[in-house]
Design brief:
This protein has one domain. The protein is of the alpha+beta class. The protein is built from 12 helices and 4 strands. A 4-stranded mixed beta sheet has the order 1-3-2-4. The structure holds zinc ion (ZN).
């Protein structure tokens, strides 16, 4: 049932034209800002920083653990300054997806020039606005581009029949939630509707990377960052960037 709803609500099913235009946008963004990374994965944070720098945007990416793991991330904009928050208490796969999803709102916000009014929260089972459906399609297409997915299937895995094991193997290359990867396989025509629904219902209810058991105590941001890093929920580059940001706040 949940799988049916997911399928009905995704942009690929609800508005194919819009899906294609979001795919073109993701490709264009990739060419301009992704640079040499083979797969975006958790480089997404660096990609967002590059985007902000090149466009001289005031944008802070805040990674912080929140106990509310249904909250993946949010974006808000005030007085010409954008803030993108990612909950590091979720798996790295969810963090990557949330960051790419919020990035779409940043891009749309730039287009709107209505910077003072927009805020967004990405929540599981939350209220869905149209732009959210597009943002999730954008995130999937940026993190799992069609060509890269096809290459992975044909060259690296060489598997014809797609099972939940295939999805787990693929995920090492893309680092996104398994639902997202399964949907992409359907969108590129590698699995049909029946296989999609069956795969979605059999996906293990687990997080590929365990979340950190973090108690948030205000004033120890660095400790929580270190904790997330120790659990591989934060990579070295991002840790260094966050640390530098914290230092700049202190001084
Ligand atoms: Zn959103």
């Amino acid at each position: 049932m949940e799988a049916e709803i997911l399928l009905t609500n995704c942009l690929y099913s609800s508005d194919r034209k819009k899906f294609q235009s979001v795919e073109r946008m993701a490709k264009q963004f990739c060419t301009t800002y992704v640079g040499g990374f083979r797969q975006v994965k958790d480089h997404i944070f660096e990609v967002i920083r590059n985007y902000a720098r090149i466009n001289m945007l005031e944008l802070d990416v805040i990674r912080f653990p929140s106990e509310d793991t249904h909250l993946w991330g949010c974006f808000f904009s005030a007085s010409d300054h954008d803030f993108l928050f990612i909950n590091t208490n979720n798996s790295l796969e969810k963090q990557n997806f949330a960051a790419a999803h919020e990035l779409y709102h940043v891009l749309m916000n730039e287009k709107r020039y209505a910077k003072k009014v927009f805020s967004d929260v990405i929540r599981e089972n939350g209220e869905i606005i149209d732009e959210d459906v597009e943002a999730s399609a954008f995130a999937s297409l940026l993190l799992v581009p069609t060509k890269a997915l096809e290459d992975c299937l044909d060259i690296l895995l060489g598997e014809e029949i797609i099972t939940s094991n295939t999805i787990q193997s693929l995920n090492k290359f893309f680092m996104v939630p398994e639902k997202c990867l399964t949907m992409r396989l359907y969108e590129i025509g590698r699995i049909d509707r029946v296989a999609l629904l069956s795969l979605l219902s059999t996906l293990p209810k687990r997080q590929a990377t365990s979340p950190a058991e973090v108690t948030v105590d205000t004033g120890s941001l660095l400790k929580n960052m270190q904790y997330a890093k120790d659990l591989d929920l934060l990579n070295d580059e991002d840790f260094a960037a966050d640390e530098a940001f914290l230092q700049s706040l202190k001084s």
